[in-house]
Write the structure tokens for this entry.
Amino acid sequence: MLKDDLKLLVGLGNPGTEYNKTRHNVGFMVLEEIAKRKNCSFRESKKLFGKFCEYGTGMEKTRLLMPSTYMNESGKSVRSARDWFNFENHQLIVLVDDMDLPLGKIRVRSKGSSGGHNGLKSIINHLGTPEFKRLKIGIGPPSENQKERKSKTVSHVLGRFSKEEFVLLNSIIEEIISCIESITSNNWEKIISRLNSYKADNL
């Protein structure tokens, strides 16, 4: 994957201050930190159905998108951005929470199913393919008991991280941003390996 092939980073989450810093919005949190470091401000875009900003110039320009459609309609925003900017699916990376991964773990895939995640499911439906890169950030399950897990899923993903969890999460976000910034010619597989084997120091 070439540096200039990375055209769009999409962070998944739900819009509105009531969802700020919740587990389901960890994708938003990564993009907000990137925007802060790149000194670019998000602005609402009606045609993209989301908040959008960009940094870099020319072939090095990278765009950040946070859909304003709520999680289960994220694909509408992603498809609009793909069509408007005329890029290919392989030039997209989606950052998303994953309840099946413990907090502190990351999983990167170049394609795959939704894994039951409504945001990914919507993107697959709108793009018409599961072949796009996704970076899954572990938020851990609400319980190991399947019955209890099912009943607590909504409150868990819409709940906020504890202070201790935030310390761990900041380390994860730092590693993700470092990897995104180091993407160069033909090193996508190395990036996958690095992130998939990542273990936070305080885990």
In short: The CA atoms of residues 54 and 63 lie 4 Å apart.
